[in-house]
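> call design_seq(struct)
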């Protein structure tokens, strides 16, 4: 199963209603996403063949997903031949059990971690803590989130909702609980904050015997794992410990090195607006005298094969976690990542989380509606995921209800009352629109009462207007305006 939603997590409209009133949060998000947007646009503009690369990336992903069983078997063979061990996990519980047992087998009680969305998805840190194993995040933003007892709010910059003053206070108050305390007199200068994190983490890098990571890509041709990052913490985790455990979603496989080249051009420009990532680490199994002595790859399903079965929704599995869609989304910029109730926030989260978890719960049911359908996310996606198309598709699933396959079991997703009411209203509107004369008479009756129109519907209609504003009724209908203006333009009544 997917990682359970935090207890009491409200639906997106209710969570967003709270977060949009946080002025500091909105200011932090507006500044950060605006800066990233501008830099990304400049980096992408440098490549004349960006659209061709984008189309190629989508085509490779689609071909790989169609033959995913073949490439995963090849990957397992290559990893095993190179000295690694492959484990298959059907859901979060199985993945957490496998990792916990692997760490226990080493006799260690702490691990260092490379930033990993998939380990957040399955709640690995919490599972390890329950087993008496402490996991230390080593990415700067993830460290901030961990020390602050917080949750990530952005795919690429998990602490995007925090400003420098907040980070300084978190370091001052919490660093000592997790290891080396913050230096005396710590300021909010970025260089000082980075140095405090560096000193805090260095002792962990040098002491750790076990590391946990994800992977950006897996090359089936050779069994090679690939991680791209900007700080160097990943390189330390991947090379110094004796045991390396990588938890990776099934969809991260690419067939060949030639295919990998496409994504190594697209990902850095789309995510950090860099021509290439400062650190691109690749490893294939184990090598005597170089790097970890034991390598374990945990291949995670956790709803991915169910998503693969949906011919429209499966394109979400192309995602390379660049976060470009978040940085252009007007809904994300105002509501923030926590409102989505998932490690996958923003537009991609609105289509990925409901597919991995199912749409039976109120939170997941609401996520496909957390969008204005403006299409900006599709325009910037480096692998051409048509997020608006999938959103509409998932909205239809929510509205229609019925049976849905969720994590290998059949579940009945019944439409909520408000969805049934919406269908009745739409059916009534369709009936009226098919009768122009009736519509015209009704409009003349409504016109004089327009000034008294309520902002919210009463009774059962209240559920519909909880998340929508009723449109204002114009003083003059389009038909009346058209007849009046045509008469003014032509004495004979002819239009132009």
């Amino acid at each position: 199963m997917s990682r359970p939603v935090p207890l009491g997590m409200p639906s997106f409209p209710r969570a967003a209603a709270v977060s949009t009133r946080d002025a500091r949060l909105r200011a932090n998000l507006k500044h950060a996403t605006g800066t990233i947007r501008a830099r990304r646009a400049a980096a992408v503009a440098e490549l004349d063949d960006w659209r061709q690369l984008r189309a190629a990336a989508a085509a490779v992903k689609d071909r790989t997903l169609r033959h995913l069983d073949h490439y995963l078997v090849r990957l397992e063979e290559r990893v095993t031949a190179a000295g690694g061990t492959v484990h298959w996990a059907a859901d979060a519980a199985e993945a957490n059990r496998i990792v916990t047992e692997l760490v226990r087998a080493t006799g260690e009680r702490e691990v260092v971690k490379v930033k990993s969305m998939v380990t957040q998805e399955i709640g690995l840190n919490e599972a390890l803590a329950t087993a008496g194993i402490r996991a230390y995040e080593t990415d700067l933003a993830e460290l901030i989130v961990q020390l602050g007892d917080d949750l990530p709010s952005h795919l690429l910059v998990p602490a995007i909702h925090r400003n420098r003053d907040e980070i300084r206070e978190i370091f001052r108050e919490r660093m000592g609980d997790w290891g080396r305390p913050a230096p005396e007199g710590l300021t909010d200068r970025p260089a000082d904050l980075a140095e405090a994190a560096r000193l805090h983490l260095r002792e962990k890098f040098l002491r750790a015997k076990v590391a946990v990571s994800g992977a950006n890509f897996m090359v089936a041709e050779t069994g090679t794992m690939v991680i791209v990052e900007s700080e160097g913490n990943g390189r330390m985790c991947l090379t110094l410990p004796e045991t390396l455990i990588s938890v990776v979603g099934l969809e991260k496989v690419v067939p060949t090195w030639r295919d990998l080249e496409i994504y190594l051009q697209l990902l850095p420009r789309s995510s950090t607006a860099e021509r290439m990532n400062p650190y691109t680490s690749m490893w294939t199994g184990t090598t005597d005298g170089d790097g970890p002595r034991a390598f374990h790859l945990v291949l995670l399903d956790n709803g991915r094969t169910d998503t693969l079965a949906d011919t429209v929704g499966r394109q979400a599995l192309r995602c390379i976690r660049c976060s470009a869609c978040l940085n252009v989304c007007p809904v994300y910029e105002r509501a923030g990542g926590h409102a989505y109730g998932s490690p996958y926030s923003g537009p991609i989260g609105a289509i990925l989380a409901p597919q991995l978890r199912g749409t039976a719960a109120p939170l997941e049911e609401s996520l496909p509606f957390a969008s204005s359908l403006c299409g900006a996310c599709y325009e910037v996606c480096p692998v051409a995921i048509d997020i608006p198309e999938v959103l509409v598709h998932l909205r239809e699933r929510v509205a229609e209800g019925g049976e849905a396959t969720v994590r290998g079991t059949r579940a009945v997703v019944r439409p909520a009352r408000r969805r049934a009411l919406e269908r009745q209203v739409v059916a009534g509107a369709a009936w009226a629109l098919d009768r122009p004369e009736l519509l015209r008479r009704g409009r003349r009756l409504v016109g004089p009462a327009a000034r008294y129109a309520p902002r919210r519907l009463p009774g059962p209609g209240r559920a519909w207007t909880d998340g929508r504003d009723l449109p204002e009724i114009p003083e003059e209908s389009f038909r009346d305006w058209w007849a009046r203006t045509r008469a003014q333009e032509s004495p004979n009544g002819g239009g132009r």
